[in-house]
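JOB MANIFEST
job_type = single_chain_structure
chain_count = 1
residues = 59
[input]
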Amino acid sequence: MTVISINQAKQQRERDEERLKLVIDMREQCRKTLRELRTIEAEIVNRLVGNERGGGDAA
């Protein structure tokens, strides 16, 4: 069993809380990026489908 001081435990908890906050922020940024990518993907697919139906390159 490892014995650590109260001060060390407090410092570790503070580091862990900060790291957790960073991870949560990173995950939220990833979610936002995925939403943006899905929107861009849908726009491209819609243009491609529209071009197929229109029979040409609509620019």
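[summary]
The longest helix spans residues 6-54.
Residues 3 and 9 are 10 Å apart (CA to CA).
exit_status = 0
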